[in-house]
Amino acid sequence: MATICAIGLMSGTSMDGIDLAMLRTDGVNLVEQGPCLSVPYEAAFRERIIAGLEVAKQITQRSARPGDLAALEQDITRRHAAAVEKFLSDQAGCWTKPELIGFHGQTVLHRPQQALTVQLGDGQMLADLTGLPVVFDMRAEDMRHGGQGAPLVPAYHAALARSLPENIAGRFPVVFVNIGGISNITYVPKNGDPIAFDTGPGNGLIDQWVMQKVGISFDQDGEIARQGQVDEDVVASYLQSPFFDRPGPKSLDRGDFTLAQAEGLKLADGARTLAALSARAILKATTHLPERPVLWIICGGGRKNPHIMHDLKAGAQKMGAQVISAEEAGLDGDATEAEAWAYLAVRSYKKMPLTFPSTTGCDRPVSGGIFVKKPLS
Ligand SMILES: Nc1ncnc2c1ncn2[C@@H]1O[C@H](COP(=O)(O)OP(=O)(O)OP(=O)(O)O)[C@@H](O)[C@H]1O
Ligand SMILES: CC(=O)N[C@H]1[C@@H]2OC[C@@H](O2)[C@@H](O)[C@@H]1O[C@H](C)C(=O)O
User: Fold this and answer.
1) Interface ipTM
2) Which EC number(s) does UniProt give (predicted)?
3) Taking CA 174 as the corner, what is the angle to CA 173 and CA 179, rounded to the nearest 5 degrees?
């Protein structure tokens, strides 16, 4: 099958910046990873997006852009175009010439129970600015078919599971974990369909906690949490949420969990407790899986928080499983999501399914995405 070289662009729920990655794929198993890059947002722009999340709460029609959201969408798109230009001039220009962009945009609202998900990102504008064809808005069609509209990375995780390096290949069931602002997992059995869902808060609450307490955007290398203790009562009170008892498919909005239960804790104890919550929420997902995983592969920024990793390893060990970072699996854990968006863009272009009943709850395998600009020759 013909391969396509695509750039994936992801601006995730942490709102820390734009991740870019290049990938050559046939949209099935053949995947060759290229260069990647992260372009951070400066603090003021991140604040503007955070303000946009509040405004977005009033949206009932997904095309509506009240208040600053229309201007913000244009600015987010311009920043993506500038990031692509930098990416291509820095290093990616030396790799294969890209033929397609997969553009996620910035989620500002996600209400799966109302079949409403809103990503800021103007695909036509990005195509005009970059001169490349763009696939964007890849969540909506899934929702039209009764799906959660998230997570979408499972199709890529499943492809990765089939091409792991020899030393870890064949260890099924394997679970890919993405610890971003929110965490999500993809369970891949030896035979049968992957199962996926959001598992709970990832780094989002930790980021909000250290921002609220000391005005910094994240707890780098878990330095703040290192001085703290886990408050088991607070972890337990978070885990009492009915969200954790619900089997998948399920997905979260960034605002579904708040700092309310952690208020009153000291700075370090809060950071350590919320790291413990992130790990426990992921491990709790096993109660909704048909078999216990034997291998967990951790992607996303949360793998750089040693407390989350420590707690995950300790918990998984009790279940007879091993936890490794994406890097130990021969992957780049900062690039996986952006690679996924490149992979999904190629699948969308080829009209292949992006989501499945077992990953989002859609009524049948569903393709999706809007394709803009000239068709590929
Ligand atoms: N060195 C580090 N130490 C601790 N935490 C880190 C480190 N580097 C990144 N992080 C955390 O990872 C977050 C970014 O992760 P990532 O880029 O995977 O999230 P995202 O893609 O925005 O989120 P999502 O997957 O929910 O869309 C940061 O906000 C921070 O909390
Ligand atoms: C609506 C939305 O943007 N959801 C994000 C968010 O961040 C993590 C988790 O919640 C996941 O469901 C999803 O992103 C990943 C990349 C996905 O769709 O696979």
Assistant:
1) 0.98
2) 2.7.1.170
3) 140
> Residue 356, exposed/middle/buried by CB under 10 A (0-12, 13-18, 19+)?
buried
* pTM score, whole prediction: 0.97
DSSP label of 366:
B
Q: Write out pLDDT tens, residues 341-372.
A: 999 999 999 999 999 999 999 999 999 999 99
Tokens linked to 291: 């078999």
Architecture of domain 165-329: 2-Layer Sandwich (3.30)
CA–CA dist 116, 197 (Å, integer):
17
What the block records as the tokens of 289 is 């899986």
Q: What are 90's strand-pairing partners?
A: none
185/162 Cα distance (integer angstroms): 16
**Ligand 1 contact, 218 CB (< 6 A):** yes
Give the Å distances, CA to CA, from 261 to 225, 271, 275: 17, 13, 14
Pocket flag, ligand 2, residue 152 (CB < 6 Å) = yes
The answer, yes or no, to whether any atom of ligand 2 lies below 6 A from the CB of 121, is: no
Sign, CA torsion 147/139/337/165: positive
**The tokens of 8 are what?**
């994936």
Task: Say how far apart CA 124 and CA 116 lie, in whole Å.
Answer: 22
Q: Which residue in 10, 55, 16, 329 sits closest to 150, CA to CA?
A: 10
- Among residues 9, 117, 76, 87, which one has the least CA distance to residue 338? 9
Atom of ligand 2 nearest to the CA of 341: 16
H or E segment at 135?
Answer: strand 134-136
Q: Kindly report, as residue ranges, where domains of CATH 3.30.420.40 are found in the chain.
A: 4-149+337-342+366-372, 165-329
Q: Which residue is closest in CA terms to ligand 2's atom 13?
A: 151
The alpha carbon torsion through 180, 181, 182, 185 (nearest 10 deg) reads 0
12 lines ligand 2 (CB under 6 A): yes
pLDDT tens digits, one per residue of 47-59 = 999 999 999 999 9
| Ligand lying closest to the C-alpha of residue 206 | 1
SS3 324: strand
